[in-house]
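tool=predict chain=A
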Amino acid sequence: MSSQENDDLAPTCTAGFKVGEKKNIDELAQLDAADASLNKWKESLGLSHAQGKPHRFPDDPRTVVVQALVFQSEDRAIRIDVSTPKAIKNLQKNPITIKEGCEYTFKIEFVVQREMVSGLKFLQQVKRKGIPVDKMEEMCGSYGPKYESHERTFPSSKAPSGLLARGTYNVKSKFIDDDNTVYLEWMWSMDIKKDWE
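tool=predict ok
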């Protein structure tokens, strides 16, 4: 059994898809310089502005710095800080509370620096008492380096409701790209309750 088969959060593989050769910013900027449509695509990724610009986190060697996962409902927004190991450790000790039956979305906030990343995906699996109850895989896209944060909001979901649905749910989240580079993987919990606390 491969490690991908053992991984609850292995991304879906498309048959026949092969990841292209990785190129740095300078190589991408020079690639097919006379092709107008390719230049437009490179411009949309911000590659022409990325060369020689300062990085948002110059002392952080990561290419993708995930800052937060934001839970958003009509009644409430909860910003879940995942920017540092200390923040993630704190999150693991303090579950977030979600009102049963509420409609919600998640938004991820991240910074891309130094290199372009292609095929970013957000994966998440929710378990209750060790049994998987929900799984999400959302394509975020490709991004060039940019000083400002990127945001991606995912489709809405509905929290479970009823007496049997209330309780603690354990969540495993992962931010990964086409090369299977894991930029962040973390565990956290949420408590489904009758009302917000």
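The mean pLDDT is 85. The helical segments are 3-6, 25-30, 36-44, 47-50, 85-93.
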